[in-house]
Amino acid sequence: MSTPPHRWIAVAAFALFLAFPPTFAIYCDEDDCYDLLGVSQSANSSEIKKAYYKLSLKYHPDKNPDPESRKLFVKVANAYEILKDETTREQYDYAIAHPEEVFYNTARYYRAYYGHKTDTRAVLVGLLIVISAFQYLNQWTRYTQAISMVKKTPAYKNKLKALELERKGGVGNKKKGQKQSDKNIEEGLDKELELQIKGAEKPSFWGLLAVQFLLLPYTLSKLLLWKGAWFWRYQVKKAPYSWDDACYLTQRSLRVAPDAWGNIDESTKEDLVQRHLWEKPNMDNYVADMRKEWKRRR
């Protein structure tokens, strides 16, 4: 005959109660906070305060030389810290009334006693520093790996040889002490090429999350100022778009990255800007033309 489910639940609850001490014990150890102060659970804040001052004078180490008085004084002071605050007192009363809710009461206790002691600003600063450190390390690792791969390509090696011949005046002979010179040439080539690989750029101090967070007020104010100037110039005064602003609108309409836009030749840029692609009808016509062109080439 199987055991009813409710009996298993009762057994589990009883086992849990035996395995863990009552959670109200984490407040004043094995003592009752109210008993330590000599007040009832219904005592008001004034009575609790009065009882504490009376006991603190009795057990304070400066007043009572008995070694046990110091231990009692610490217990009394701890009980007062718990009961003088409405929040912690409410939590303690709840733990007394519901000793079976072990994990819930324990979590409330540690959140109350340790959560508020940590300065949120310090936590935020520490978190930003840690994230920025990992961000920099990750970007530097990706950058060095990408550079290492580029140096293995034939294009890089050919460029290195060309630069070496250029610096040596077209003479390609090798001498005994030439290794250091070759190393210097390669280091110089790294600087001249200014290798920037998309997705693995060299890490920058200004790109770190912590720095961007510190500069956030400046960035927002600058953005608002730019938005205000844009609104005044083109919405209120109805002025024609400048070349740079028209390029920006075109680039945004085409969803082209800034570096990709910079690689487009000037004649193509001028043709795209003159189409006024930031206006929806013009953009729709341009997309239709591109589709026709693509089908024609197929």
UniProtKB/TrEMBL annotation:
Membrane topology (UniProt): Multi-pass membrane protein
GO CC terms: endoplasmic reticulum membrane
> Which InterPro entries does this chain map to?
DnaJ_domain, DnaJ_domain_CS, DNAJC25-like, J_dom_sf
Q: List GO BP terms, alphabetically.
A: protein folding
Q: Which domain of life is it from?
A: Eukaryota
Q: Where is the signal peptide?
A: 1-25
Q: Which Pfam families match?
A: DnaJ
Question: Which segments cross the bilayer?
Answer: 205-225
Gene3D superfamilies named in the record: DnaJ domain
Alphabetically sorted, this entry's keywords are: Chaperone, Endoplasmic reticulum, Glycoprotein, Membrane, Signal, Transmembrane, Transmembrane helix
Annotated J domain residues = 32-96
The listed locations are:
Endoplasmic reticulum membrane
Q: What does this protein do?
A: May play a role in protein folding in the endoplasmic reticulum.
- Identify this protein by name: J domain-containing protein
Instruction: Please give the organism.
Output: Stephania japonica
* Taxonomic lineage from the root: Eukaryota, Viridiplantae, Streptophyta, Embryophyta, Tracheophyta
